[in-house]
Specification:
Helices cover 52% and strands 0% of the residues. The protein is mostly helical and 114 residues long. The protein folds into two domains: 55 residues, no CATH class; 42 residues, no CATH class.
């Protein structure tokens, strides 16, 4: 598969994460490969296995963005301990130590962009 432009990467990610089949179930990788080949009108030689690197490219190219989850239990405990925070927008992100602070930055940036 030589062609790997953003349109192709986006379409694979879109079919994987957003679209469902006629039966309402998530599309299988084989169905995604077939549909992309049909839509792009080229012999891309896509297989179930060849789609996974495209999904990784979607993350690297920021087509798909991963945002760490907010830990609501910890947030509730923090507000319970410090009631003055109840009216404020407080997000708590679980990290794995000092070297994992990028998650906090990602959530803060996401909040700023809202």
């Amino acid at each position: 598969m030589a062609k790997c432009d953003d349109d192709l990467v986006y379409r694979v990610a879109e079919l994987l994460f957003k679209e469902r089949g006629k039966d309402g179930k998530w599309l299988k990788m084989e169905a995604i490969a077939d549909q992309v080949e049909e839509e792009f009108g080229e012999n891309l030689e896509l297989t179930r296995e060849s789609l996974y690197p495209l999904v990784r490219k979607a993350v690297r190219r920021s087509i798909v963005q991963l945002t760490p989850p907010i830990n609501r239990d910890w947030r509730d405990r923090l507000v319970q301990r410090f009631p003055g925070l109840a009216g404020a927008k407080v997000n708590v992100v679980r990290t794995r130590g000092r070297d994992d602070t990028a998650k906090v930055v990602e959530v803060a940036a996401e909040e700023l962009l809202k």
